[in-house]
Amino acid sequence: MTGFEKIYKTLNKRELVHPDPLEFLYRYENKNDREVVGLIASSLAYGRVNQILKSVETVLSTLSPSPAAFIAETDSREFQKILKNFKHRFTDGREMATLLTAIKEVRKNYGALEDCFKEGMKKNKRAENALGSLSFFVEKITDSFERKETYLVPHPEKGSACKRLNLFLRWMIRKDDVDPGPWSDIKSSILLIPLDTHMNNICKILGFTVRKSADMKTVLEISAAFSKINPVDPVKYDFALTRLGIHPDMKISDLENYM
Fold it and tell me: What is the domain partition of the chain in residue ranges?
């Protein structure tokens, strides 16, 4: 067993998910709800984890019992009313309400967020990874925003690592004890690593990069390194590796115990 498989077998467990916004997806069995909740939860996954969980909980509490059904059946102007007092760091209620409107419009036009992403795949048939498809998806989501852009769903072409969007895709496409994978017929091989400073530091230790900046160039470099280890599922080890230094009982230095 390789070191990566050892760390996956040991740490890729449902009981180690908390505190992680991924846990909100487990509340819902319906794939429509899971993709809607996944985009909401991942878009707010910046800042202190306790505040992230609180903010996601606040939004979802207004959309119960079925977020997908609520968004589809509610007038977009109502989103502004129910979220007028919402605040998550520099995301206010107006921006969050616009994201709900964007989700409503994309699902109305394509049938599902999944189908929108797959349309992007059709336009990028020869692509080796999800970058082109993700760009198409983001363009359709940001059409609802005044300036065609939002920090909640950043454009990949602008150089950002798009950690939260790649996290969203991991949740949607992979399926194991941790990732629910409600989307179907999309190969995990196209996924890119959800990269932040923490994961970048781990990958420096692994020798996958020497770049200081956790940007899209680094994402592609690190993802290529993981693809050499596991071409079918390059982000398989993401959750397990990031427990080191995130989980209160684990440190990055513990990595040497597995490799």
Answer: 3-257
